[in-house]
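Rotation project, supervised by the postdoc (A.L.). Task for the rotation student: set up a whole-complex structure prediction and record inputs and outputs verbatim in this book. Inputs entered:
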Amino acid sequence: MSLLEVESLHAGYGPVNVLEDVSFTVREGETVALLGANGAGKTTTLRAICNMITPRGKVTIDGRDATRTSTEKIVKLGVAHVPEGRGTFVPLTVEENLRLGAYARRNGGLRESMARVFELFPRLEERRHQRAGTLSGGEQQMLAIGRALMLKPKLMLLDEPSLGLAPKLVSELFKRLRQIKEEEGTALLIVEQNANLVLEFADAAHVLETGRVVLSGTATEVSSDESMRKAYLGY
Amino acid sequence: MARFIETLIDGIATGSIYGALALALVLIYRSTGIVNFAQGEMAMFSTFVAWSLVEAGIPVGLAVLITLVLSMAGGMVIERALIRPVEGSQELTLVTVTLGLFILVNGLARWIWGSTNRGFPSLFPDDSVSVGGVGTSLESLGLVAILLGVVGVLYLIFQRTKLGLAMRAAAVDQGASRLVGVPVGRMLMIGWGLAAVCGALAGVLVAPRLFLDPNLMGPVIIYSFAAATLGGFDSPFGAVLGGWIIGIAEALAGGYVDFIGQDLKILVPLIVILSVLLVRPHGLFGSPEVARA
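Outputs recorded:
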């Protein structure tokens, strides 16, 4: 069964329609890349899944119709969203940010999860009592991913995790994401401009163009597609 | 010297009342970005509720406790019913709504209890203690103790509980809070509830010193606005300290500056508000800019 099913999703801002009939699925433990140019509707898709904007169409999470489920309840279904701009609580400490990540968790095990986050991102442990606003951009992105992990999510939505980071940090970050996929078994839905990097470890990919899925397939299929290569991969 | 210290203690005691109401203003401003002009009237209404309970034969201490619980609920209902629909509106809309709330609560109190002056019993025994020639009433000491108690409880809630952490998160960034599963609406309701409790405390503490009537909080709210402005509208610590500074300034000006005396001392908070806004608009402990996403 699919963990996330998106069926003919339409969404937009006010009178402006951004998504026109977007459909795809994410299976348990699977990593799916959502690719496309600026303005193609990638971020909007993630927002619509979390009901940050009200979509038309159907979103099913873990077998439950979640199209009309509020953002905070969707978190309870095990979906952690690492939003554009990271959503860091700047005046709160690193540890408080992490504890907030576990807010919607019903079971215990908070301590273990935090230990796991610190294992993946040792920098965060060094800075656990610092205000999150004092962290560098890369550290804040680690914090955002660490906070999402605190939910022990079934599915993690990542909105351009590489945005604004130095290349060295980006490859480090993607190593960790791969580790999360392999060791935690978390399903990942990753929006990225940096297509090469995601396609290296994604299972499937979908390419959006002006609000429609124009190409879908396994990561290998998509990365070998000629039009795709020319348009997004640059070779 | 003894007189000076007595004036000082008196100022801190009065300032504690301003601090409690300023805390209420700050709690709401921090979480919803709204300056609640009706805070004083809500406090007055709570005080009337306490008065009614006392009149019904309930001991004053218990009556106040019941009132605090009712105020919590009342604050939450007001947020849900009146504030939620205009949440995120322009400032002018929000100001108008809280001014409307001011008139509504004031009118409601007149309708229920009338406009006559009533006496309100003090929570403290009418006694005084004297240490080294400096005399002070038990009431003054009690006022300071209660405010410190309130601050302590609020600190524990905000810093040590999951609820408090979620409330702080909701005050910082509502969108990001929803994304971690914090029910932002409920946090705002609780914020209004806690504010109503602080306001109610200010009301029942000041009422024995004045007369209880629907205009009870008129003078107090001015001083509390000055306290919150001075301390910084988003800093609970600043609100308390601001309350004390205003209380001391008022007492000293009233007691030592002849031409001010008792009649003109209302000028003190106004001068403070004006100077703070001119020199340091974010107050002593406030954040310089409040960027809301």
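Student's summary: The CA atoms of residues 115 and 213 of chain B lie 6 Å apart.
Supervisor addendum: Chain B touches chain A at residues 162, 165-166, 168-169, 172-173, 175-184 (CB under 8 Å).
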